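From the pipeline queue, job 12 of 40. The input is one protein chain; the requested action is below.

Action: predict structure.
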Amino acid sequence: MKRLQLCAALVTAGAAVIAGAVAPSAGAATHSGSGLPTIRVSGSGKSFSVHVPSSVTAGRVRVVVSGGKTGAAGSLVRFASGYSFAQYRADYIKTNQLFGKSPKKAIALYDSVLKKVDYLGGPDAQPGKHTTMTVVLKPGRYTIFDDNGNSPRNGHPVVVTGPSVKRAAPASSATVRFLAGSRFGGAKTIPAHGTISIVNADTKSPHMFVLQQVKPGTTMKQIIAALQSESNKPPAFALPGGTGSDSINPGNRVTLTYSVPAGSYVELCFQPDPKTGMPHALMGMVRLVTAS
């Protein structure tokens, strides 16, 4: 799974090493919340497929991403009126191209895109695995796309109709928060198997949630050094376990149901900062937690 967003060109080689190591290895997730309209996503590239129920009524909706043979990452967004997935993809590609020529223009374009996109999260899955997310959607037109590549692709419409129906969220045993100043907050002990809530309490930027297993005793100093390293080798402390969600806008919240090995983990966010384009992990949005 590649966690690539606009301005991904600014991710340093060291950050890319960590990003490459955080591919989710979630086991079969428990699909809590019976009765929820369910959008199913599988595969990537030419094998990417989306199944949307014939009727998706507003309220809590479930998104299940199955990795298939290649792994998959589905990102759910709502575009501003008059802005399309094709334009979003073109702006994404142009922004990355501009970073090598004119970083100021790239950041300006990125900032303009953020004003036209409401990021609602999106579960990721390794080959043969799946991950589940729930989110409350208002009536309107949404897009779910393949985010398991170098740029957004395979946009698929999701039409949500009213009136809104109140549907219960899966029971959550912990909450992770994105805080102002690009920091993580909330529980430092999360379930190894179960459901957590992810809340973007920041008011200025979207954030993504990357949960990466690390060897016991790994320190923040080691993680920061790996992020800043120019090595193309995976860091020695990285282990296979992990899960995560794609970008979530300020004020939005999702639940994520997953299964990972118990142990030590690091939370990271690789969302580019709206003012500098620097991935938030390189600005200190890194936190050690325990899954038990």
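Job complete. The chain has one domain: 11-291.
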